[in-house]
Design goal:
The structure is a single chain. By secondary structure, the protein is an alpha+beta fold. The protein has two domains: 298 residues, Zn peptidases (Aminopeptidase, 3-Layer(aba) Sandwich); 123 residues, 2-Layer Sandwich (Alpha-Beta Plaits). The chain has twelve helices and 20 strands. Helix 3 packs antiparallel against helix 12.
Length: 438
């Protein structure tokens, strides 16, 4: 019986890539799988049908890379995923699903029927962080492909398709139905709108969720990093810097608010029981150097491993904004009071699936068997939503190597690319349950 060859990256390349993954995702522990889970997944991996699927993934890697090239060069800015979604829908049908559709939010879904014992989701996200008009043409340098969004998360979409094709070729039947999904709104102010729609109140019950987001075949993200994001606007009448001097100044109010927030939030995070962060990411306002602005705005991000700590630093933020407003109004010499608008633009829930959960143990076992590093991680991905609901959920990489995500210099290298897809298939089938062939 043939066995997959789990080829590791060379040490010179592996170390920095693992370091980047740790910084971005938050490695929480190195966690070997328990013996019973390892034995279960090893037996599954040795099954002739799984071996046939593994061979298909390796032999059809040229198709995988060609499809990666095609989808990467279809722009998918935030809230504008329709064109890429339409092509992904076509590829689902070509790859073999029982039915396919786009839902009300824009998620693209392909149903592969199983034994009906439950339904799980296997997904990548359609959107990229890059705005409309970004050049997504692929540039090549040796074995490296450069293009915005090629790794995050076009590779995930292609891995989803490659797993589907391999399961169909090897005639792998599962106990559970599987939704193969391209979600919308994973990035930025999309605020996980696609996956939130899938798991909305009153929707279908799902037994498990797997997101392919990122690269490589190491690590399992079993914990969601929660975040609150706000757009804050201080507003006033505005006027000439000389003739209207004494009016309340929104930028002055914003400055006071940031100063108070930075001081109080720093004290809070220094003493928080669980890791918590804050950041003022963007600011704007004003019309000219000699005009009192009529508006000043900023966008703020706060994150925490703990739902309670996130609420607490949110309260620190709210108090600082009000204090900045009150102080700016108190020192104005004339005119109407400044006003404050605080708008939540992002709310990602946190949570964690325990390490000893059977799903996590099977994912760790598959990672170990494929030669990956069995670390558990915390990150902010589509998995946040189902994790917060207590639904067994993970995020894993889609194979290959790369870096510079969220930048115009984003790149992908097909180093051990099939191994990551093979691991994803093994985890999926171990959770969905394989029906024995009679």
């Amino acid at each position: 019986m043939s066995r997959p060859v789990a080829r590791l990256l060379t040490p010179s390349l592996t170390a920095p890539l693992l370091l980047v993954a740790a910084l971005l995702s938050g490695v929480t522990s190195l966690a070997p799988a328990q013996d019973d889970a390892a034995a279960e997944v090893r037996a599954l991996m040795e099954h002739p049908s799984i071996q046939a699927a593994f061979r298909h993934i390796e032999e059809n890697d040229p198709w995988t890379i060609a499809t990666l090239r095609e989808l990467t060069q279809i722009p998918a800015p935030p809230f504008m995923e329709e064109v890429r979604g339409q092509r992904f829908l076509e590829l689902l049908l070509e790859s073999g699903v029982d039915s396919a559709w786009a839902d009300e939010e824009g998620n693209v879904i392909g149903l592969r029927r199983g034994g009906g014992s439950g339904t799980m989701i296997f997904s990548g996200h359609l959107d990229t962080v890059f705005p409309e008009g970004t050049d997504v043409t692929i540039r090549e340098n040796g074995d490296t492909l450069f293009a915005p969004g090629i790794a995050d998360d076009t590779r995930g979409l292609v891995a989803v398709l490659a797993v589907l094709r391999a399961m169909n070729t090897a005639d792998i039947q599962t106990d559970q139905d599987i939704w193969f999904v391209g979600t919308v709104g994973e990035e930025g102010t999309g605020d996980l709108r696609g996956v939130k729609h899938l798991f909305r109140e009153g929707s279908q019950d799902f037994s498990a969720f797997i997101s392919i987001d990122g690269l490589g075949h190491s690590g399992v993200t079993n914990a969601g990093l929660g975040s609150h994001r706000y757009r804050v606007a201080f507003k006033g009448p505005g006027g000439h810097s000389w003739g209207a001097f004494g009016l309340g100044n929104p930028i002055h109010a914003l400055g006071r608010a940031v100063s108070h927030f930075d001081a109080e939030a720093k004290r809070y995070t220094d003493n928080a029981a669980q890791r918590t962060s804050y950041n003022v990411g963007t600011v704007g306002g004003g019309t000219s150097v000699n005009s009192i602005p009529f508006e000043a705005w900023m966008e703020i991000d706060m994150r925490s491993e703990s739902p309670e700590a996130l609420l607490e630093i949110d309260a620190v933020f709210q108090a600082a904004m009000r204090r900045g407003l009150e102080e700016a109004n108190a020192v104005r010499a004339r005119g109407e009071e400044l006003t404050l608008e605080v708008t939540m633009i992002g709310n990602r829930p946190s949570g964690e699936i325990p390490e000893d959960h059977p799903f996590i143990q099977r994912a760790l076992a598959a990672t170990e068997l494929m030669g990956g590093v069995t670390s558990l991680r915390r990150s902010s991905t589509d998995s946040n939503t189902p994790i917060s609901l207590g639904i067994p959920s993970i995020t894993i990489g889609g194979g290959g190597a790369g870096g510079n995500s969220h930048s115009l210099a984003e790149f992908f290298m097909n180093h051990n690319g099939p191994v990551g897809i093979q691991r994803a298939l093994l985890i999926l089938v171990s959770q969905a349950g394989m029906v024995p062939v009679m």
